[in-house]
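In the laboratory, one determines a bound structure by crystallizing the protein with its ligand and collecting diffraction data. In a computational setting the workflow is compressed into a single prediction: the sequence and the ligand go in, and a structural description comes out. We illustrate the idea with iron/sulfur cluster.
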Amino acid sequence: MTAFSGTPHIDGPVRRLVVVLGDQLNHDSMLLEDLEPDRDAVLMMEVRSESMEGPSHRMRTAFFLSAMRHFAIELEQGGHRVRYVALDDPANTHSFSGEVARAIDDLRPDSIAVVRPGDWRVYLEALSWHERDGVPCEIVEDRHFLNTPEQFRAWADGRKSLTMEYFYREQRKRLGVLMDGNSPEGGRWNYDSDNREIFRTTPETPPIEVTIPDAITTEVITLVDRCLPGLPGRMSVDSFIWPVTRDDARTGLRDFIEHRLPLFGKYEDAMWSGKHVLYHSLLSPALNVHLLDPRECVEAALAAYKRGDAPLNSVEGFVRQLIGWREFIRGVYWLEGPGYRDRNWMGQTGSLPDFYWSGETDMTCVRECLTPVLDHAWSHHIPRLMVLSNLALISGVSPRAIGDWFYGMYTDSVDWVTTPNTIGMAMHADGERDETGRTVRLPVVGTKPYAASGKYISRMSNYCRDCVFDVNERAGEHACPFNTFYWDFLIRHRETFRGNNRMAMILKNVDRLDPAVRSAISTRARTLRTEWGIA
Ligand code: SF4
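The predicted complex, in structure-token form:
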């Protein structure tokens, strides 16, 4: 495609104005299906507030804008009229509501429609459009997903706790995926225990077919740096790897299914220096802006299994992410309401250390895991969960601080996915307390925190071999900070986890700690917190 030339002037009045947000780029959206090109129009908006409040990684921002521009061009090529408000449009008010109001003034639509946004904040904003401007605004469900929020609510209703595994099994049955009659294919629902292999030496991994930036993406990269200076992360035309069209996204899917899916399951949890992708799919950015449909990804994986090209443990692991975890956390997000992102069950209040933004740290594991985040706004799920958010959890960083970081720094981040994953799964913060501090509700997403010492990282990677810290030490200047903070976390939260059966064994080990060791751990943790600017 040639450079983006904006959008031709649209004369009002229009019958229906359909708002398409940056994470709603599916051509089979229900609203686009009903559009009459001569009478209706589409509104798309590049607004500064979506990148500066947060803030958002340069590459994440460019990915969204480039994908939106390609989508707008494709709509126009399909005969639709698109009012596209560019980031550098002098009239841009840089807020969704401001641009909807301007479009209403100019186009005088009879009605507005939008697919349910992926964010409580924007959803509530969309609800206000009707009240403010008097034009009826319809919010329709997003058919990209396999469940509506109401379906999930019905599933959750009356349950004492929400367990993803049970939800997932029902999805498998309901959708008829990997089922052998009424039983799971292969006899087990879950093959996680087969998916924890490690590498002994540097693995040979297949080359990745990435999208080469075209003129539109190249223009957007320049635009982002010009109009949104100071955004975090690194970006150049050479380092931009993300698909921004449906065709590119489908190429990425094919590449994953053919070359990485066969070993995806086996090495799903492994990490290795300089090998950031390994056998992971790289599909989450395209999925989360809806350039890919989860159904076609599941079908492609199932077809590979049927052909004998991919083993069951890989296919089941991939399918579970799509029909299980992804749908489950979206359900939790809409069920729990807009206040969810501010939950802080464990009362952690620390600031995020600066090295999360710069990557400058002596900890080899953290530096390695931050490299693909700073370079490409992405890392696979184990660096996210067991290194980057684990460190924030055990060192006492506030859930909101690390949640905002994950939200801004990942290309695949949309609020419905990032917030439950960080506030709920990673930070174990989504329980609730009353004003006296008494727990009135235990955490929703997890039954125990994903807290781990350096031992886990040492087992799953080669990072510790070249680190200045000693993974066998718990306290002292050279001790692995993950060890120090892991034990300090357990000491600090001894009472928080009293009564949690899944923590009982670990807490017994805390009780057995020699008082001198306990004191040395706490002292070293305090020193590190001060040095890193957490406390
Ligand atoms: Fe990370 Fe600790 Fe290993 Fe260093 S020793 S790489 S800080 S886990």
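The mean pLDDT is 95. Keep in mind that any predicted model is a hypothesis to be tested, not a measurement.
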